[in-house]
């Protein structure tokens, strides 16, 4: 299945020119070995192994062979190489530098589970190196990063799956929810509410010595250079053995420098399903309003005034005005999941349940045959990786493509910008820019730290 050709900067520019001149682009490899022999197992590598990195790897060993792992923490790298050996009997190579993975011609595709602030750089460089990509959600740290990824997917022809696995897994209840809406079971949608949980702030977290085996400077990568911070209390679960309060490990999700808090974490799941159900995954809102919110530290001009505490929102209620003037409410209150309300009824869905009268009515009035498959666009894959590999074989984009993901994630990014600035934002979904607010538009991109720019 290996596509050996790599895209360097000259190839990229030539392809861009050709695409502009002809109006389309044919990928770097129109036919791969996987298309010649659908039963051949692809060769994968995983970049970023802690927690979700191992989760997506372990789910994928049924369908693919893993030739390499990359992680900046030598302990995590060693532990996961051992787990792979125990699980599959395979021995993979381990690297601290992910670029050594991208240099290998025997690797068809990469699975990326590094922290969010690394997603765009690794993803773009992987595609330019001729690899298909699976990247964990949320895909980007900024809206402009999403535009860049879309551009490179189009220009390289790589197949790119985003890890919004609710589109495929969770007993397909989210697909059934959308099928209910499409079959008119709640009439016209009047309101959608996404409950995505609140968060907590942190105590003051002191700067301490970097743990042995962790390359902290490279972990920071494109983000600003800051000290490593942690308190002694340890976190249960999530791989264990990591500080509860830190600016690294699991807790990086609570810092805007590396992620987008709950808005981009759970929001990337539930806002995705809500946007899909609304038929708005090729557009987005025209206005985002921060009705209420709480930040754990003081802010000035959209930036935290201290650097030793978590800085993403702890509570919030955001209203996004979707096409048809349908309100999409994103809230930290209530049950985690999605409430759909229409002119004929309402129902609630999350990873554990699908409830409401329209759901109860299915006992006597089931959905038409093939309704769920119609939402999915064909036979439903057994898991997210299987869908990605099928797309790799067909050279078509998978169920969680970058375009629909980025459109959904723009709502989450805009919500965070609105919270940081404390005001409503008007959004042009065609130009993909904030209307009449230069300060807010400055948050659509970020400057990478010198030495960690994207290699084009």
Automatic annotation (TrEMBL):
This enzyme's EC code(s): 3.2.1.49
Main enzyme class: hydrolase
Domain Gfo/Idh/MocA-like oxidoreductase N-terminal: 92-163
Pfam families linked to this entry: GFO_IDH_MocA, GFO_IDH_MocA_C2
Record GO terms (molecular function): alpha-N-acetylgalactosaminidase activity; nucleotide binding
Keyword annotations: Glycosidase, Hydrolase
Gene3D superfamilies assigned: Dihydrodipicolinate Reductase, domain 2, NAD(P)-binding Rossmann-like Domain
Residues of the Gfo/Idh/MocA-like oxidoreductase bacterial type C-terminal domain: 203-453
PROSITE patterns on file: TAT
Entry protein name: Alpha-N-acetylgalactosaminidase
Species the sequence originates in: Rubripirellula reticaptiva
């Amino acid at each position: 299945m290996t596509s050996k050709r790599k895209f360097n900067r000259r190839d990229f520019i030539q392809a861009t020119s050709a695409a502009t001149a002809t109006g389309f682009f044919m990928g770097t490899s129109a036919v791969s070995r996987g298309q010649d022999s659908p039963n051949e197992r692809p060769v994968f590598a995983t970049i970023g192994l802690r927690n979700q990195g191992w989760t997506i790897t372990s789910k994928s060993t049924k369908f693919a062979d893993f030739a390499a792992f990359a992680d900046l923490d030598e302990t995590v790298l060693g532990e996961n190489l051992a787990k792979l050996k125990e699980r599959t009997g395979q021995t993979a190579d381990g690297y601290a530098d992910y670029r050594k993975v991208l240099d290998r011609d025997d690797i068809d595709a990469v699975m990326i589970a590094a922290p969010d602030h690394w997603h765009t750089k690794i993803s773009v460089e992987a595609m330019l190196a001729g690899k298909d990509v699976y990247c964990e959600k949320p895909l980007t740290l900024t809206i402009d990063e999403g535009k860049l990824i879309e551009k490179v997917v189009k220009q390289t022809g790589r197949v790119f799956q985003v890890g919004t696995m609710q589109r495929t897994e969770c007993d397909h209840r989210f697909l059934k929810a959308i099928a209910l809406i499409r079959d008119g079971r709640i009439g016209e949608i009047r309101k959608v509410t996404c409950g995505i949980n609140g968060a907590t702030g942190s105590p003051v977290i002191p700067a301490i010595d970097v743990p042995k085996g962790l390359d902290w400077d490279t972990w920071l990568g494109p983000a600003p250079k800051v000290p490593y911070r942690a308190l002694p209390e340890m976190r249960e679960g999530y791989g264990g053995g990591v500080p509860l309060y830190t600016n690294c490990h699991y807790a990086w999700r609570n810092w805007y420098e590396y992620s987008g808090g709950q808005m981009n974490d759970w929001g990337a799941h539930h806002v995705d399903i809500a946007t899909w159900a609304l038929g708005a995954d090729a557009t987005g809102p025209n206005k985002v309003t921060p009705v209420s919110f709480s930040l754990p530290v003081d802010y000035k001009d959209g930036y935290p005034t201290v650097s030793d505490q978590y800085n993403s929102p702890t509570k919030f209620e955001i209203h996004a005005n979707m096409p048809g003037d349908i309100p999409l409410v994103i809230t930290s209150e209530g049950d985690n999941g999605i409430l759909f309300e229409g002119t004929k009824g309402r129902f609630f869905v999350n990873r554990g349940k699908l409830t409401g009268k329209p759901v109860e009515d299915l006992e006597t009035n089931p959905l038409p045959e093939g309704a769920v498959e119609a939402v999915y666009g064909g036979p439903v894959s057994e898991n997210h990786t299987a869908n990605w590999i099928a797309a790799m074989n067909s050279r078509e984009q998978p169920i969680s493509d970058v375009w629909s993901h980025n459109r959904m994630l723009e709502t989450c990014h805009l919500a965070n910008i609105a919270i940081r600035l404390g005001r409503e934002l008007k959004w042009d979904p065609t130009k993909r820019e904030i209307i009449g607010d230069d300060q807010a538009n400055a948050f659509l991109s970020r400057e990478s730290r010198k030495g960690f720019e994207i290699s084009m």
